[in-house]
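Sample 1 of the test manifest.
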Amino acid sequence: MSVEPTPGPADVAGAADGDAPLLEVRDLRTEFTTRAGRVVAANDVSFSLERGETMGLVGESGAGKSVTARSILQLIDRPGEITGGEVRFKGADLLACSEAEMGAIRGREIALVPQDPMASLNPVLSVGDQIAETIARHQDVGAAEARERAIEAMVDVGIPDAAERVDDYPHEFSGGMRQRVLLAIGLSCQPDLVIADEPTTALDVTTQAKILDLLGELQAEKGMAVLLITHNLGVVAQTCDHVGVMYAGNLVETASLEDLFANPQHPYTRGLIDSIPDVDTTYDALPAMAGSMPDLTDLPAGCNFAPRCPHATEACQAGGDPPLEPVDGSTARVACHHAADLDLSEPTVAGPGAVGRRAVDRSGDPLFDVRDLRKHFPAGDGLLGSLEVDFDGGRPRVSRRSVKAVDGVSFDVYPGETVGLVGESGCGKSTIARAALRLIEPTSGEIYVEGRPLHELGATEVRSLRREMQLVFQDPGSSLNPRKTVGAIVGRAMELHGIATGAAKRRRVRELLQRVGLPGDAADRYPHEFSGGQQQRVAIAHALAVDPKLVVCDEPVSALDVSVQAQILNLLHDIQAERDIAFLFISHNIGVVRHVCDRVAVMYLGEIVEFGSVEQVFSPPFHPYTESLLSTVPHADPGRETDRMLLEGSVPSPVNPPSGCAFQTRCPKKLGGVCEREAPALEARGTGDGHRLACHLDLEAMSDRDAFI
Amino acid sequence: MATAAETVGRYLPLTARRERFSRFADQFRANTKAKIGFAIVLALVVVAVLAPVIAPYSISKTDISHRTEAPSVQHLFGTDSLGRDVFSRVVMGSRISLYVGFGAISGALLVGTVIGLLAGYLGGMTDELLMRLMDAAMAFPPVLLALTLMVVLGPELNNVVLALAFVYTPYIARVARSAALAERNESYVEAAVARGESNRRIVLAEVLPNCAAPLLVQGSLNVSFAILSEASLSFLGLGAQPPTPSWGLMINTGAGFMETAPWMIIFPGLAIGLTVIGFNMLGDGLRDVLDPKVDTVEA
C-alpha cells in the first residue's frame, strides 16, 4: 500500500493512471444524525488499494467497516451523510460524481457483494434474470446475449449445471450456491474493484473455505482488486495482502498481512489476534480485552481505545484520537501515542486467576444420559403437506414424509464436565438440545437426569426438574424479555423454584449479577440498555439463578464480537470451576469448542459421527467429516498453510437422507458399495477409551494426517 | 481474569426507564397526527365528564314555543323540533358515544386478546379452530352483523355495547394473534419454558406485555368504528331509544326537518365526524410512535 498521496489525473477511464493507486480514500468522513446527536461512523479514514490487490478491513460490529465501504460507493442513506474527504477511483473523485454517474460506476467498475445470500437475492426473479439485469444495465447487449453471459458468469463462479439452473429461483439454491450467485452478479461486468461485505459470514466453514478459494482464483484470473470486509481475522489471514483495522470509526492500523500478524503495532490489533481461540493452542484462559467498544454517541475524550487499552497512559486519556502515522521499519501505519515504545510482537498471556481444564471424574453415574434420541418433524405444512404419494410399481402408495432432524443420538454428560456438540448448520445440534431438555417432545429415545427418566415424566414433574437444567441462548437480545427489568428476569426463576423471595431474592440477584460481571444496580435496568456481551452475562445469570447442575449453551458466543466472546468464554469457564456445573456446549466454531470442551460429539445430518475427548477427536484417527471440518477452519496466522480437505456439494436434505452412511455422498474417502448400503455404527475404535467413530474405513485410512492439537 | 466487574466497563450511555419513556414522548411530540388526535380525544373526554356543567339546558325539557329555532346566543346550536337545546343534547351525547365506544372496545379487547393470544401462542388445532371462528364472524359486514344482533337482543343502549363488542372481537383477536405469533419465536419465551414456567404465566406475564402496543393501536382505531356503528344503529332506530341524546338518534329525528332546521343534524353530525377523526388520528399516530421501525423524529 502506498502511503504517499498520488495526485492523479481526473479521468475515470484512467488511461494515465500508471502510478496512481486504483482506489485512494483520503480523510473520508461519514456522519449520522441520531437522537443523541451527530455520530461519526467513519472518522477521517485514509487508505489506498492497488490493482489486483486484496485488502481486508477488519473490526468488530460498529467499527465503521461497512459504512466506509458504502461511502466509497456513495450508498449512504439518510440520516447518514458523507461530510468530508475524497474517494479517488482511477484518479477521479467519486464523491464529486452525480447519482447518474455513480449509477454507471456501481456494478460496472466497482461491484458490491453483499453479506446475506438469503436476503440479497430477489425471491421472485430467477437467478439468471438477476445476473442478466446487471449485464443489461451496463453493457450494450440484447436479452439473449445477456442470458448467455449470465450463464458464463455462473460457470465462472463454479455453479454446476449452469445452463440448466439459470432459470431456477434463489430458494432452489443452497446458501453457498446463493453466495456464488451474488459473486456472479458482482463479477458479471468485470469490475476493477470488488467490495465484498462479509461474504462468508453466513456460511459454514467448509462452504466458507470454498467461497474464499473461489474469490482468490477469480481475482488472480481477472486481475481485479478486492476490498474484503470481515470481522474474522482467520479469513483475513487466508486471503488478504493488506489489512486495515478499524475501531469505533477510526482506522487504527494498516499494514501488510505479514507485518500485521507478526508485529502488530496497535494494542487493539494485538488484542483482536489474541482473543481468537486457535484450534492448535491450549489455553488456561483466553486473553480477553476488557470492556467492549464504546458507543459512538459517547466516545472517550482521548484515544477511543484508551479505556480498554492495557498500555494506556495519561497522554492517551485526552486530546482526541492519535493520527494514523507511518511506523519506521515496517509497512504499517498506526494510530497510537505509544507506537514507538511498544513491542507487541509476542501474544499476551492471560491474566491471573486463570484455571486450566480440570480432570473430570467419570467413575460415578452420568448427570445427563441421552440414549437413542430421535426427533422427526413432519415435512411440509399442515396435516396434508407431509403426505407423499408414490406411484412406483403400479398402485399409488401414500407415505408420510418427515425431516429426521435428530436420528438416533446417544451421549452422556458427567457432573462438572463440558461436552461439545459441533457440526454445520442444519446438522441437528440445536434440536438435540431442545429435545433432550424436553422443550420440544422427542419422537423417541430415553433421557435420564441423575437417573430420573425425563422422557417418562409428566408436565408438572418436568417443570420442577427444570431447576436442574438451564439454557443459555445464542441471541441474548431475544432471550431477555424486553419489557422486564434485569432484576425481574433473574429473580423470577428463584421465586418460581422457591429458592428465595423478597429481600433475600434481591440480595441474591445482586450477588449473581456481580458475579457475572455486572454492577449491582444493573437489576433496575432494562435489557436494551446493555451491550450484547452484557446481555449475554444477564442470560448467564438467569441460567445460574436456580443453581442448576447442567447448563445447555446453544452457540452462546456466536452472536458476539471476538473480544467480548473471549470474556464470556472465560466467565463460563470460571463459573464451571466454582460451581461444578456441567455444560452441554453447542457450537459451530471449532476453535471455541477446542478451548472449552472436555469431550466433543461431531454431528452430521442428525447423527453423531465421532465422539471422544478433545484430544481424541482432534488427533488421528479422524472421521473424514471431522477431518474436513478441522482442516477448513481458517487460522488467524498467515504463516500456516493447512492441507485442506474440501467437501463436494452441500449437505443433503434430512427429508431424504442418503442410503447407507449419511456422509457417503460427500466423503472424499468413500470406499464404494459398502458405504452406500450399510450405515456404519458408532463404535468404540481408535486408541483411547471411549473414542467412538461411525465409519467403514479402517483406522489406517483415517490416520494419514497429523493431529490438530 | 481480573474481577469481573472491571472487565465489563461502562453501560451504554442510555439511562434507565426514563429514557424509554422520553423516547416515546419525543416521538409523540414529533408526530402531528398523534398530537391532534390526542387533543381531540382529550377534549371529548373532558366535555363528557363535565357535560352536566357545560350543558346550559336540560336535555329533555321540551318547549313547544321555541321549537326549531336557529342557532342564537341563547341556543348556540339552535333548538330541535320539540324545542330542546341542541347544544346541550350534543354535549350530553358525548357521554353516550364514549360509553359505547370505550365499552364495546374494552369488551372486544378483553375477549379478543385472550382468543388471539391463545391461538397465536398454542398454534396448531387451537389456532385453526379459533381463527376459523373469527373468520366466520368477520365474513359479515360489521354494521350488518350488529344490526342482526340488535334485532335479537332488542334495542337498548347496553345491548349496543354488547353487540359491538362481539362485532369487533375478531379484529382485535387477529391483531393479538399475529403479535403473539411473532413473540412466540423470541427465545425469551423458550427461556421461560426452560425455567419451568406454566403456559398460563408465559402468555400473561411474558407474551402479553410485548403485544400491548399493536393492541393499543387497533383498540383506538376500533373505538372510532364502534362510535360510528352506534350512530348508525341509533339512526336506524335499533340503538338507543328516545329521549336518549345519542348523536345517531338526533340525526334520525332531525332528518325530517332537514330543510327547515338543518342545525338539528349538522351539529350531531359534526360531533360524530370530529370524534371519529380524533380516534383515527390517535390510532394512526400511535402506530407510528410505537413502531420502532418508523422513526418520526426528523434526523
